[in-house]
Amino acid sequence: MIGSLGNLFLRTAVVLTGTALATFALLWHAPGDPALAIADARYASIPPAEVVDLIRAEAGLDAGFWPAFQAWVGPLIGGDFGQSSVTGRDVWPELVTAMSYTGPLALAGLSVGLLISVPLALLATQHPGGWLDRCAVALASIGAAIPAYWLGLLLILLFAVQLGWLPAMGARTPAHIILPALTLGLGVAASLTRILRSGILEARDQHFLPAFQRRGVANRDIERDHVVPHAAIPVVTVFGLELAFLLEGVVMVEVIFARPGLGSFLVNAIEARDFPKVQAVVVLTAVLFVTVNLLIDLIYHALDPRIGERDA
Amino acid sequence: MLTVDHVSVRRGTIATLQDISLSLGPNRTLAVVGESGAGKSTLIGAILGLVPCNLGHITWDNAPVHRCRPALVMQEPRSAFNPRMSLRRSVMEPLVARGILADPARLDTLCHGLEIAPDLLDRRPTEVSIGQAQRMGILRALIAKPPLVLFDEPLSALDAVTQKHTARLIAQMQHEEGFASLIVTHDLGYAAAFADDIAVLRAGRIAEITPSQAFVQTPQTAYGRTLRDAAFALGALERVA
Amino acid sequence: MTITATGLGAIRSGRTILHPTNVDIRPGERVGLVGASGSGKSTLGHALIDRLRAQGRRVAHVPQSPDEALDPLRSMAFHWREAEHALNLSADPTRRQDLFAALQIEGSDLNKRPWGWSRGMQQRFVIAMALIGTPDLLVMDEPTSALDPVVAAGMMDLLDTSLSDRKTALLLITHDLGLAARRVNRLMVMEDGRIVEDAPTERFLLAPVTQAAKSLCAHRNWLELPC
């Protein structure tokens, strides 16, 4: 157990280092002069060449790739995200502000997804192949095929423009979260429904279940004690992927609905070549991703203890 | 003549076969018995060259075994065939693989010897009974006249009557064709009735190799006795008065 | 009280795989149900279990392999509790100890899941579980085929003693007349969905009547095969 924990941490460290290095290299080698882009963002005009050189020196861009990378990573290990190369202000407080918008939206989207998919999958699997089941499968397929930006625009057209029930742009009131959360949640619901449905059907088809019926165990107990735990395994497995989908979706949805948050934070930072800000977002998502996958690994071991012990 | 000379196989740090030596000549039958995990399947893999030996050599007439192109008959007859192909195509595969032209007379002889109605060859594996499918498996193994045939639990998917019928057909084919046969089985009854010698494998080692009639009377080792008594208890062998 | 079921039958995809069949088994009797594969033995076993359960008789089933009887995600203790609960019995440590002693599985770790036990121990656990409610009939379907012979022989011996202590009748379903002849005192032969012969073991072996029974008898012993 201790060995495998150490293994996990080592893996985490490798993933984080790799991510940091890859993003830095991508930004570094992106076409165009980063110093010029920073100057443009700072002064909103093309400054004289001396100013650009000054910015280059100030941002450490003249030192070469590795020194610049070290200059950024060094403080990061101590938890210091550095300062924006455009405004010179600390990145961390701005990042926290952005997350205070994105976090609730992601959670709301996930909740909408779960609230729709769990009951739908349970209803659909009552009678596999029945009309309800076929409807659920069709809905899920359509839902998975619709891109978030299109669905978002449709929802805006219907609820904000035609009916005028809900606000579409910005994040001033709590009601502003409803449409973005729906856009995000419907996509999540579509993929979760399919996974849950096939998970439940497969779990009901296990070859040992008839023996439990012949032993006199009530169907209700069989569902609860022998079907649900088996169905949970594939669902938990794909939850990590679902999170990637959620992060990707949340950025897009924020842009569509002109919400402040990590999406606009990231888009603005990339346009301005604000290295420290971009890096901060990437490292944060990487940490989040690794943490969630670590948790999933642990849950997975708890659900199915065969993993790991079989080899021993 | 098959010669297995002081062969050891390791997987990781675990020895799956240790210091195995045996030999098997044409027209002879050796049954390898033992519990699951004793290394029976590893032995077959090692003879076929699928599992590398860490120590020792396995040869057929002083050449590497694969040169004599040994054949294998597997336990699950249906899953041993491609379900989408006709059995005729499947059983011809060993010839096609070697670029040998199929000899219709050879196929007729084998079909006759294995009691396979020729029209069954045009069916698919799921359209024949398990017993018929296993006879097809034997037909495929024998079509290219191999000097050595390995049988991995060839009867355990069949019912008691079909088992004995198939065992007799195998023995008749061996009498006609003269191949050496190595049979891995957990059924001591089958081993005692159809093999010349019985090799008892336990935890990767050969506990004893005894002529089969002598084994039924008096196994040489305590473990051999345990196996024989279990066969008595399960009715696989009748106690000789 | 004799176990009686009449008119058992089964049709699958329009084909009759079990013709109307009557079964009578006396208390504590050991009956073997033998026949070729596909003759309808297992179908009859399942139909009999379902009918007896509907009659309110206590009947237990031991499938061919412990894989078909145990949930790999649940501990042995969970299976035991669940089996007691299914029979509306309260947990009784003495009963458990008795059964575990009878099948020689005492001292095993019940908190482990099935795959933490050897297959032979799993199979014995399944038998012990089947005996919890002291059933009138225990139906076993090819109980030895998933086990190594040494393990299977030990299991059958333990089963013998456990059953004789309990007046539980046994229906042993197997393709292997050699096995059945050693373990039961009455044999029923199935062929094409019908019971074609039903006789005490000794008479059956000496004078089989039908073609199916003759074939089974002739192929009973490996060392004395007909030419």
Explain what you see:
- The complex is a heterotrimer of chains A (312), B (241) and C (227).
- Chain A has helices at residues 2-29, 34-43, 49-58, 65-77, 91-124, 131-145, 148-162, 178-204, 209-214, 219-256, 262-271, 275-303, 306-309.
- With 312 residues, chain A is mainly α.
- In chain A, helix 2 packs across helix 3 (49-58), helix 5 (91-124) packs antiparallel against helix 6 (131-145) and helix 6 (131-145) packs across helix 8 (178-204).
- With 241 residues, chain B is of the alpha/beta class.
- Chain B folds into two domains: 1-68 and 150-157 and 182-236, Rossmann fold; 71-145, no CATH class.
- The longest helix of chain B has 18 residues, at 160-177.
- Chain C has a single domain (3-224), classed as P-loop containing nucleotide triphosphate hydrolases (Rossmann fold, 3-Layer(aba) Sandwich).
- Chain C has helices at 41-54, 76-86, 93-102, 119-130, 149-164, 177-183, 201-206, 211-218, and strands spanning 3-12, 15-25, 30-35, 59-62, 137-141, 169-174, 186-191, 194-200.
- In chain C, the strands form two sheets. A six-stranded mixed β-sheet of chain C has the order 4-5-6-3-7-8, with helices on both faces. In chain C, strands 1-2 form a two-stranded antiparallel sheet.
- The radius of gyration of chain C is 18 Å and the shape is globular.
- The mean pLDDT of chain C is 89.
- Classes of the chains: A mainly alpha (312), B alpha/beta (241), C alpha/beta (227).
- Chain B binds chain C through residues 35-36, 129-130, 156, 158-165, 168, 186-190, 192-193, 216, 226-227, 229-231, 233-238, and chain C through 36-38, 144-145, 148-154, 156-157, 175-183, 215-216, 219-225.
